[in-house]
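Need the bound structure for LPXRUNBV, inputs here:
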Amino acid sequence: MALFVNHLTHIDVSLWCSTRGLVGCSWQVDALLEGELGDDGMLFDFGEVKPWIKRTLDSGLDHTLLVPTQAPGVEVSECDEGVCVRTTHPYVMEVRGPAQAFTLLPWESITLERVTQHLSAQLTEQRPTNVERVTLTLSDEQINGAAYGYSHGLKRHLGNCQRIAHGHRSRLHIFQQQERQAGLEQQWGAWLDNRYLLEEADIAEQTASRLICRYEAAQGHFSISLPAERCSVLPTPTTVENIARWLAEQIAKQTGTATCVHAFEGINKGATALANP
Ligand SMILES: Nc1nc2c(c(=O)[nH]1)N=C([C@H](O)[C@H](O)COP(=O)(O)OP(=O)(O)OP(=O)(O)O)CN2
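Answer from helper R.:
Posting the output first, comments after.
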């Protein structure tokens, strides 16, 4: 007997890729549970499936930086903050933070298939009575049009969004005179893709070529060092509300036209902002 729960939750992470660098991802999670029926005629109460799986994901890989420890140029060590990840390919990056902000995976690269198998095995190991196997399916949101992946951290967030390198893959909708602007969406989506967004106040050191962002949050001390060209600096915290407002202002200035931006934070949620030139 098998039980399925589609659209169970989402996972928002950043991952390190030896060709693309720091990549923000959002994955939809569907679950399949196989096993025997209990005396109550159920495999596992639907009311418990969702919280159990969500709890496991939220306290594990969700909102972490996924690090393929066998990838070329990746080095992981202990440091005062907890864990230090250094990379060389395709660019030099250093991230420091408490251990819970990282998921270290003994692979050469992070793929959706490997992450899916890893999480399915973890859940199967912790399975409740009657359940023999748990299989997750992770998928990218199908987006017809502009999309971008970004990474960031919100130091004031009391939950896991405070982690300095977690990310999202998001749609981007830009309206002028009530019409979607596909050209602008493609242009800005491509510009934003694989960027690190940070708040100006968190810049600890800056040169023409490198930027270091550092902050203290409830979970501990965090820092990230990246090539300046991979970063975009906002005057405010990088909440989706502020990202929407910042984009609307930039685009209104660029085009000389009143602009409304619908910025998404991962799948199915976001903020809208309107700006005049
Ligand atoms: N009003 C806002 N609230 C939150 C923002 C924001 O920008 N504006 N941002 C965050 C974090 O960046 C976080 O990454 C969002 O993660 P989310 O998926 O919403 O968090 P949860 O895991 O709690 O939600 P799910 O139910 O698992 O999708 C937080 N809040």
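Comments: The pocket of LPXRUNBV is lined by residues 9-10, 12, 58, 63, 154, 157, 159, 161, 166, 239-241, 265-266 (CB under 6 Å). The first strand starts at residue 2 and ends at 17.
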